[in-house]
Amino acid sequence: xxxxxxxxxxxxxxxxxxxxxxAIVCLVVLSPTTSLTTSVFADHHESTEDGFKPLWNGKDFTxxxxxxxxxxxxxxxxxxxxxxxxxxxxxxxxxxGSHPPMGYIGTxxxxxxxxxxxxxxxxxxxxxxxxxxxxxxxxxYHMVGPDRVWPQALQFQIERTNVxxxxxxxxxxxxxxxxxxxADEKDxxxxxxxEDEGGIEHTHGMKSITHLARADLFEQEGWNTCEIVTKGExxxxxxxxxxxxxxxxxxxxxxxxxxxxxxxxxxRILLEIEAAEIFFRNVEIKLSARRD
Length: 292
Hints:
Elements: H1 7-12, H2 14-29, H3 36-39, E1 53-54, E2 64-68, E3 72-73, E4 81-84, E5 87-90, E6 103-107, E7 114-126, E8 136-144, E9 152-159, E10 166-169, E11 173-178, E12 200-204, E13 209-212, E14 224-231, E15 234-239, E16 242-254, E17 257-263, E18 268-273, E19 276-287
């Protein structure tokens, strides 16, 4: 058999040769072991199966900053904040009963229209000025304006036995529905109740700092899962899968005219540091494509 190739035959069969070569290249480049998703784009921004992405990467504070009393931004000489095995541990090195600084860990960017979730669990130590009262922390969202303790924002309250309360700082106002039994009680915080459960319309936030109590208590020992869903000027608080509070028409006073309000629908996200040992992990976010 003659092994030499006829030049005319090669030219006639060139399309077939090229097709075979292209098929081989595709098998090599797009094989599962060299997937573009896993080899080129795989990093801490990759989505989970339910669409959430890590807002905190579990390793360092890239995309975040720290702010502490006495020290300001990104300066923590007392080691108030530590990271260990994908967990933020607050006040690990502080002595129980001492008076360490308070503050927060905040995102560099502002966010709007999102579903945020994270987990926390309590430590054992407490500190002044809250040594004699309930352990306290929280997550601020829609934070605007300058850094300070405490900044203008809405807050998902994390206080022992009061997890999920809506706290406002900076004369922020909103509408919600509350238990009518708590509408006129001066010594009791208004308590959230859905309209389906008999809640009545209520405007909240007439003071510099205000509290709206969560509907029910779903806190458990160990790790707890908190969620905040924001859409425009609306927000919903969830604890361990249960809706515990809602608000709508969030607004803040204009800096140049406190009698005039503007919509509050975006801002930075902050993990609060408030004189109680606490752990945070799995801080994740899912952005919505539109407001409706």
